[in-house]
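Appendix B, Record 12. Input sequence as logged:
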Amino acid sequence: MAVWYTGDLHLGHANIIRHCSRPFATVDEMNETLVANWQARVAADDQVYILGDLFFRLRGDPVDWLSRLPGQKHLIIGNHDTSWLKGADYGACFASMRNLSSTPERRSVCHYPLMSRPDPVQIYGHLHNNRRGRNFPLLAADGRALNAGVEINGYAPVSFRELVNNNARFANLWHERDGRSLTDEAAVYQPRLRLYDMPELVPSRAKPCVRIVVIAATSRGRLLLVRSPGEERPGPPAGHREPGETPLAAARRELVEETGALDWRLEPVCYYSVAQAAPELDPTHPARDVGAYGLLCRAEIAAFGPLRHEVSSLEFRDLREVDDGRGRRFWGGLPAADELRHGDIAAPLLNFALTSLPDL
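Logged structural output:
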C-alpha cells in the first residue's frame, strides 16, 4: 500500500488555467489529464491525502468523478469544497473528511499553511504556485513545510519523497538571483535552518534558549557588514544575548556596539533555530539536536558614530532593487555564503530578512 499526496485540483474550474498558468487548452483537457494521471499512479488500496479544493464549478455529479479516482481518499476540506459538499452526503466517498488532521507518519495535513503545527512536517495546499505572498519566503525556507498543489507536483498525486524534492526545486527557483542560486549550498543547509513566524514564538521550552541575535543592516541602499579583528571574512552585525536582556534589547545593543549607529530603526523579522546536524527531511528520523535559537532583525542606519574597539572595520556592499516581473521586489548583490563568516547560516538569513521586509 502506497501513500500519495495531492491538492488544489480544481476539477471543473476553467479560469484556474489562466490564474495558475496551467498547461491546458481547455477545462475538459485539464479534467481528463488530472484524472488520467491519478489513475496511472494510485491503486485501489493506496491512501491518498487530498489537500483541499478538489472540485470548483464542476458540471455534473461529483460522485461520477469520484468513482473514477481510485484509492482510499482522505479529503482535507478546502475553501472551495464547501459549496459542492452541500449538495449531498459525500462521506461514503472518502475514508475521512477533516479540516485538519495528522497522518500516522506524524505529518500535519491542512488546506492552509500553518505557522505552528503539532507534527514535525506539515503538508498544505491553497497557495498553488504563487510566490508573491508575504509568507512565501518563510515557507520556502522551512524544508518541512510542503505544498501538495498539483502545479508544482506534475499534476499528479506524489509520494512523500517526491513532495520533498518538488518543493525544494520550487523554492530554489524562487531563490534564483542574477542567473544563479542565492548560494549553491541552499538546498543542503535548508534542513538545518528553521524560521518561526512573528508573532509566533519558538517552542515554549526553547524561549530561554534564544541567545543569538543577527541583524540585516542597510544604509542608503548598501548592505552593512562588520569585520572583527582576526576574522578573514565579514559578517552581519550579531552577538549574544546577555543575562536579563530580552532578545530585542540585545539586537539594539549589538547594532550600536558593532556599527556605531547613531540614527537608526530596527524591527524584528523572525526567530530561527539552527540544528547541529542536517539529517534528511524524514519525519521518522530522530529529533534533531538544536545547536542554537536566535532572533533575526532588520535595521536601517541613517548616521554613524565611532566604532567600539572590538570591531576593526565596516564594509558596505552596494545593493540594487530588482523586480521579478510579477510585482515582487528583492535585493540583488547579496554576498554568497563563501564570502561571509558563518555564511551557510548568515547568507540565507540575510536574504530572508531583506526580501521579506524590503522597506524599513
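The radius of gyration is 23 Å.
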